[in-house]
Amino acid sequence: MQELLNRIRPVTENDKELSVFSYSKIEVFKNCPLQYRYKYIEKKYSQDTSIALELGSLCHYVLEQKGRMVADGQAVNYDKLNDILMNGTTETDEKTKEKLLGVYQLKKKYFEVWHEADNASGASYDEKVRLFNQVLHEEMEDTEWKPTYFEKPFEFVWDDKVILKGFIDRIDVKGDQYRTVDYKTSKKIYEQSKLATSLQFGIYALAILSEFGVLPIESIYRFILIDDEQYALTKGWEKRLIKALDKVFGEIEVSEKKEIFIPKPSPLCHWCNFCQTNPEATIYRNECEFFSKWTPTQKTFEVNKKWNALENIGSTPKRKLVF
């Protein structure tokens, strides 16, 4: 733990020139440096949305409201929670900036896909909502762990180089022990290889250490639309996390110095806002030429255009480095 403590410290006024990273920003770079360039360097932010994003935000919000009721010692008002789930809400908070559509509105907005079974769980969105209702009644009923913090904001400096910032879905407390919980609306659980050194939960653990002086003893992915869960961070994760963060920030520094952001075409292109194969992409859908042609119905390794370093070096706008 001491090695981790040596790498983190609170953010001060003198740190305002440091680059700010969230877990999702780091993950974008790892998945595709070119997407990182479009989104975070060229600032091509898209308002594109999807049924998965909107339903996910809604379910997160409903669980957050239950958590606050439990934490405040109130009887859980399931009528109120069901009303939010079905009709949405216009309330906003630090993380949720816009109103959330409820199931009734989402069903109309995405009527073409609402009743389709997905290719992983085999469930339609009607079935997923029913499963979520089951999860809603089961979650946070453990009397041993007390849900205490919800959408908990955090920020700290890592290695005097960058600010790590974000929100933790839920933090439970038992005496002087902590556990972090992240809600997922994925179609399936993760491969075991993703769990041992979860970068997301590793960063959350650093946030707990920064604020409370201890590491969490449990880190749980809760899959709220398929009613499953997985534990992350296996023995020795601390050293592996340091190595992983050093590696990715080193790669980002090299990319920015050389102004080279190499695309990584993969099935993930189908959900990228800069890719033509993404049915939800709008204003930036023609931005990338190097996308994978993979789709859920046409599984192929073919790419639209192969990357050529000689043609593409130097096409990135110059940016002040802060590493």
Automatic annotation (TrEMBL):
One of its GO terms (biological process) is DNA repair. GO terms for molecular function: ATP binding; DNA binding; helicase activity; hydrolase activity. The keyword DNA damage applies. It comes from the Bacteria. InterPro entries: PDDEXK-like_dom_sf (IPR011604), PDDEXK_AddAB-type (IPR038726), Restrct_endonuc-II-like (IPR011335). The keyword DNA repair applies. SUPFAM superfamilies: Restriction endonuclease-like. Pfam families: PDDEXK_1. Residues 21-274 form the PD-(D/E)XK endonuclease-like domain. Keywords: ATP-binding, DNA damage, DNA repair, DNA-binding, Helicase, Hydrolase, Nucleotide-binding. This is PD-(D/E)XK nuclease family protein.
